[in-house]
Design a protein that fits this description.
Layout lengths: L1 E9 L2 H11 L4 E5 L4 E4 L5 E6 H8 L14 E6 L3 H10 L4 E8 L4 E7 L5 E6 L3
Parallel strand pairs: 1-4, 5-8
Antiparallel strand pairs: 1-5, 2-3, 3-4, 6-7, 7-8
């Protein structure tokens, strides 16, 4: 498993993109207003911006922690060789997935999500499909 990006889950996509592009001066690698997603080239590990609203749709609002915790403000994304195999191992160790591995055609990836004990979202993915 390799940490490939830290995804910031933001309330205001446009302001956040402008901040990291114009103030922090990170080179913008990819941006999609429609998907509310942007990726900045910062070295081996990327910083990505994704709207909280869209992330809630991806993982399902009903899957968010119910202990009063708010949605995670960031997401750790790990590139893995086989999403299904990694999820199976993690479940054997007691991890609870927010949803089973599935293909997200718009992302050209197989993905799964889970939370750490504090409710922070972790994404496991494999590109391309």
């Amino acid at each position: 498993m390799k940490l490939s990006q830290v995804r910031l889950l933001v309330k205001n996509f446009e302001k956040s993109v402008a901040f990291y592009r114009d103030v922090m001066e990170f080179p913008l690698g990819f941006s999609s207003e429609e998907m509310q997603f942007a990726s900045f080239n910062t070295g081996e590990t990327k910083i990505e911006i994704f709207s909280r609203e869209n992330m809630a749709e991806v993982i399902g609002e009903n899957n968010l922690p119910t202990d009063g915790a708010s949605q995670s403000k960031f997401l750790l994304a790990f590139s893995v060789d086989q999403v299904d195999d990694v999820c199976s191992r993690l479940k054997d160790k007691g991890a609870v997935l927010l949803h089973e591995p599935h293909d997200r055609r718009a992302w050209n990836a197989r993905v799964a999500h889970l939370c750490d004990p504090d409710g922070n979202v972790i994404e496991l993915y494999k590109h391309p499909l």
